[in-house]
């Protein structure tokens, strides 16, 4: 067993983009990397075999809030953790549930102790404290677990952001103490990532970067972006945080985003991403492709028998035509959700893989600028 390690392998001369290698007890992760979101232990409409073989996922994400409610900690603990429960053999990252609690604004109550909230399933009352969230994530068994934080909404005023950040830092101290006083549960090393907050205020973000960096954790995350602030402000704050976080640790930008968001933020020095967008949009008939964005519901695809995206090396993108996938959506066939979800995830993994290749070749900046124009095209 060994703590997660990060090897910085290449940097781009024209930007801050970098390629690296994360090593965990469940395997290695080439960065930059996109992590498919398996909120409740399953990436929606996708099998583990498809994740491994078609999508080429190196790591997936599970969520503390959802897994705590269903299937519950007793089921997960008796199974031997999430890896054994869902039969995913590669690394897993677990989000702390802070964002989900943030989204329950109507039922949550934030106190120094923690957050009380009502389950979205049955309305039952629950309390998440920093200590409890560490214990829950230990039981779930992620290779990377996240600190419990408070995520201020986009557009927060300075006074609220100040109080929220102070609370997040006090909670981080409590997470850190609890994590370091409890053992790994399943015979492999778990790693705690702190989260930088501070809304859109640079002085708060720098303070948070400094506070987080002082923990000397295995990796660091940037939270509280893509929560309602303008896209350009997201880029500005992301770039600012990357400049103030240690280069020798992986940087994880939480919950971002579109393909062009990801390429821009790779150029700022981000290594890890996750987002529900590829699967959520796929289930709603929106496809991301190497040539641009497709709404497969449109009638223009009714007689288009060409592959979904023959530039991608996976069966879902090459085996099925646009006309057939449109037919499946129009007919309400469940297969449509699988094809679209696998395709979109495979595209995201291809995109970060190609970004890595361009970084290694020294051509990332020019490739990124050309690629973003294509990615934003509506086909």
TrEMBL record:
Q: What class of enzyme is it?
A: transferase
Transmembrane annotation, as ranges: 334-353
Q: Which reaction does it catalyse?
A: 7-aminomethyl-7-carbaguanine + guanosine(34) in tRNA = 7-aminomethyl-7-carbaguanosine(34) in tRNA + guanine
Q: Which UniProt keywords apply?
A: Glycosyltransferase, Membrane, Queuosine biosynthesis, Transferase, Transmembrane, Transmembrane helix, tRNA processing
Q: What does UniProt list as catalytic? A: 95 (proton acceptor), 274 (nucleophile)
Against InterPro entries, the record matches this protein to:
ArchSynthase1/Queuine_TRR (IPR050076), TGT (IPR004803), TGT-like_sf (IPR036511), tRNA_ribo_trans-like (IPR002616)
The domain of life is: Bacteria
Please name the pathway. Answer: tRNA modification; tRNA-queuosine biosynthesis
Q: Where is the tRNA-guanine(15) transglycosylase-like domain?
A: 16-374
The EC number(s) attached to this protein equal 2.4.2.29
Positions binding substrate in this chain are 95-99, 149, 197, 224
Q: Which GO terms describe its cellular component?
A: cytosol
UniProt record, GO biological process: tRNA queuosine(34) biosynthetic process
List every stretch annotated RNA binding.
255-261, 279-283
State one molecular function term (GO): tRNA-guanosine(34) queuine transglycosylase activity
Q: How does it assemble?
A: Homodimer. Within each dimer, one monomer is responsible for RNA recognition and catalysis, while the other monomer binds to the replacement base PreQ1.
What biological function has been recorded for the protein in this entry?
Catalyzes the base-exchange of a guanine (G) residue with the queuine precursor 7-aminomethyl-7-deazaguanine (PreQ1) at position 34 (anticodon wobble position) in tRNAs with GU(N) anticodons (tRNA-Asp, -Asn, -His and -Tyr). Catalysis occurs through a double-displacement mechanism. The nucleophile active site attacks the C1' of nucleotide 34 to detach the guanine base from the RNA, forming a covalent enzyme-RNA intermediate. The proton acceptor active site deprotonates the incoming PreQ1, allowing a nucleophilic attack on the C1' of the ribose to form the product.
Q: Which NCBIfam families match?
A: Q_tRNA_tgt, tgt_general
Q: Which family does it belong to?
A: Belongs to the queuine tRNA-ribosyltransferase family.
Query: What protein does this entry describe?
Result: Queuine tRNA-ribosyltransferase
What's the source species for this entry?
A: Niabella ginsenosidivorans
Q: Which gene encodes it?
A: tgt
